[in-house]
Amino acid sequence: MSTTRILDGGMSRELLRLGAELKQPEWSALALINAPDIVRKVHQEFIAAGSEVVTTNSYALVPFHIGEDRFWKEGPALIRLAGRLAREAADAVSHRKVLVAGSLPPIFGSYEPQNFQPSRVQDYLEVLVENLGPFVDIWLGETLSLIAEAEAVRNAVAASGKPFWISFTLADDEAAIGGGEPKLRSGETVADAASWAVSSGAEAFLFNCSKPEVMQAAVETAARVFRTMDASIEIGVYANAFEGETGEAAANEGLHETRNDLNDDAYSRYACSWAEAGATIIGGCCGIGAAHIHRLKKTLLS
Questions:
Q1: Helix (H) / strand (E) containing 237
Q2: To the nearest 10°, the Cα dihedral for 268, 271, 276, 278?
Q3: By the number of CB atoms within 10 A of the CB, which of 86, 106, 148, 183 ranks highest?
Q4: Radius of gyration of the chain measured on its C-alpha atoms
Q5: According to the annotation, is 272 in a ligand binding site?
Q6: Are 7 and 284 in contact (CB under 8 A)?
Q7: Which domain does 42 fall in, by range?
Q8: Worst-scoring range by mean pLDDT, 2-16, 73-87, 283-297?
Q9: How many domains does the chain have?
Q10: pLDDT per position as a tens digit, 204-246
Q11: Residue 260 maps to which CATH number?
């Protein structure tokens, strides 16, 4: 487990914990507008907890959250601010290297693969890539629900010269938790997504914003595909702490309650199972805070 890299955790609940106001539809983008110092503080706390990669707070900087007009008028400046805050926090660390991952979210809504618009997606991704580019070390297409979203990210960053990671959100209903074949929220299989990743040039293939119970099977499936195809691609996991089923609701249409049973100790036990299955990049998503990351570092890097 000594080769495991530790990611950060979920931004939004940490913003709330430190006093930022979050409300729909802007959600975490509101903190960039009203409280950028708190965004920087969240990055700093994750780094202090042991994160080796911090992710830009650009997830909600899409028309789905801030509106079409604001995206074109204010979006570029907000995106640059998100990049700069993460970069400043990472560069302030003198004793170890901290990377900045540029978050490229699902443009047309989380958990909503049916809304994907291939004819328009590059218009928006281009703005994110152009304005985050000066600040990031790697690209992270995250919470993607279908392979076409990942392909769009690959195309968007192709000219940047920087490596990219792709992270899919998984079906995590009762059938999935009960042992069904691991699938994306689109219904596409993890095996097919992993096969796509081999041909994509992605450096890492991850799963995020799904319940921890479904992650091990997905990691095992991806590892099997990569062995079969003789591919050297890192596998990663950063699960959420959402309570109840999320498959029928968009991820950001309201504030999901978080689980009381998923404390730092419980989450670290899941993380050990992911590492044993082949994951080498591990962090947290919604509801997984700095305390969880601190425990991950102690558990996985001891």
A1: strand 234-239
A2: -160
A3: 86
A4: 17
A5: no
A6: yes
A7: 5-301
A8: 2-16
A9: 1
A10: 999 999 999 999 999 999 999 999 999 999 999 999 999 865 5
A11: 3.20.20.330
